[in-house]
Design goal:
Layout: H1 10-31, H2 42-55, E1 59-65, E2 80-86, E3 114-122, E4 124-125, E5 128-129, H3 133-149, E6 157-165, H4 168-184, E7 193-198, E8 207-215
Parallel strand pairs: 3-6
Antiparallel strand pairs: 1-2, 2-3, 4-5, 6-8, 7-8
Helix pairs in contact: 1-2, 3-4
Length: about 220
């Protein structure tokens, strides 16, 4: 199968993540948890997102080195992508295992997988209004797009932005500004798949707005 034969749908990815996070929200409600999912930091949210995608049938491979970084022999060297997805819960190819006993003939080549960076930002935190809201959204999120776009061997990629907010209008307004800034910088994002759902108000956040933006090459 060549990379041109692979078709990834960001709407399916967004559906899977939203459905999984909704299950987490409902679980917190039933357990009467003191803190909700919106209080999790980005690293702690990753397993929830991964479980959501696994539940939907995707293969999920966390903290994978970018393809361009694999020219370095050391597995600990090079930038890593938050999540790499494969269809039908298949394994991800390991070029270093090619033609060895550990080579999996059914594994998905790196170029055919979907590379997903994740950004999680809450408008309100346990300390009150998030003072880093704008800088996280406008700065570090653009950096994730650039990482994906700059690897010439990644053909299927996306940026997941998860926002916990006081209203959908706040998220859509600020994401609109972010999109405009990306276009000004000529960063190659396409129209996103968006999902929204309510959460229990514990910190001031009452809605989750998530978007999966397809990312292409610069």
């Amino acid at each position: 199968m060549s990379r041109t034969d692979v078709h990834w749908c960001t709407a399916d990815i967004a559906d899977a993540i939203a459905e999984g996070l909704i299950r987490c929200v409902e679980s917190d409600r039933i357990a009467q948890s003191v803190s909700g999912i919106d209080a999790l930091n980005e690293v702690d949210l990753h397993p929830k997102i991964a479980d959501s995608l696994i539940h939907a049938g995707f293969g999920v491979h966390r903290e994978q080195r970018y393809i361009g970084a694999r020219t370095k022999r050391s597995r600990s060297t090079g930038q890593r992508c938050d999540l790499v997805l494969t269809p039908d819960d298949r394994s991800l190819a390991d070029p270093q295992a090619t033609a060895t006993l550990f080579d999996d003939p059914s594994a998905v080549p790196l170029e055919e997988a979907f590379w997903l960076e994740v950004k999680n930002i809450a408008q309100y935190t346990e300390m009150g209004p998030n003072p880093s809201w704008s800088s996280e959204l406008l700065g570090t999120v653009r950096a994730d797009v650039a990482k994906l776009a700059n690897d010439p061997n990644i053909y299927h990629a996306g940026l997941l932005i998860v926002l916990w907010v006081e209203s959908v209008e706040v998220a859509e307004h600020d994401l609109g500004i972010w999109q405009d800034r990306c276009l000004e910088k000529q960063l190659p994002i396409a129209s996103p798949s968006q999902r929204t759902f309510p959460i229990q108000d514990r910190l001031g956040n009452v809605q989750c707005v998530l978007r999966v933006y397809p990312v292409s090459h610069l």
